[in-house]
Amino acid sequence: NSKAKKKSKKKKSSSSSSNSDSEEAVRKLQDRVDDQTLIKEQKMAEAADQPPAQEPEKPYDEMSWPERAASAAHKAEADAIWRGASKAEAQMAAEEAGETVMRRAAQFGYVEQPKQRAKFNAAKGAPMKQLSPVEQARLGGLCTGVA
Question: What DSSP line would sit under 18-30, residue for residue?
C-alpha cells in the first residue's frame, strides 16, 4: 500500500517543464494532422473538379440494343449528376435516355426475347411448390392435433 501511495505521489508531482513539453508535442501533432487534412481536402477538391475517368467501352455498332440503352442511361445519369441534379432527377434522366434508345430499337424491329421457360422433364416429375414451415410439419406428421 505504501509503495502505491509513493508512486502516485511521484506521478502527481511533475515539473512544469514536462507539462510545457507535452503541450508543445500535442501542438506539433495537431499541426501535422491539420496539414494532412488540408492536403487531403485539396486532393478531393481537385478530384471533384475533374470528370470521372472513363473506361474504354465497346464501339456503338458492336453493342446490342440493351447494351446501348444501358450505356445511354449511364451517360445521362453521370451528366445529370455532373450538372448538379439530385439523385432522383439523375435517375429520371437515366430512365428516359434508356427508354428513348429502346423505342428507337423497336422502330428498327428489335423485340426483346421472352424469358425461356424450363421444359418439363418427366424423369424429374412436377416441381413441388414451396411449403410453409407449418405445412411441412403437418406433412411430416409432427402435428398430432385434430386436422
Answer: HHHHHHHHHHHHH
What DSSP letter does each residue of 39-94 carry, written as one string? HHHHHHHHHHHSPPPPPP---GGGS-HHHHHHHHHHHHHHHHHHTT--HHHHHHHH
- pLDDT (0 to 100) of residue 91: 93
Residue 90, C-beta contacts closer than 8 angstroms, at least 6 positions apart: 77, 80, 81
Residue 11: count of CB within 10 angstroms of its CB: 8
Task: Tally DSSP H helices, then E strands, for the chain.
Answer: 5, 0
What pLDDT is stored for residue 69 in this prediction? 93
Do 90 and 81 touch, CB atoms closer than 8 A? yes
Query: Most confidently modeled of 8-12, 16-20, 84-88?
Result: 84-88
The sign one gets for the Cα dihedral 30, 35, 36, 37 is positive
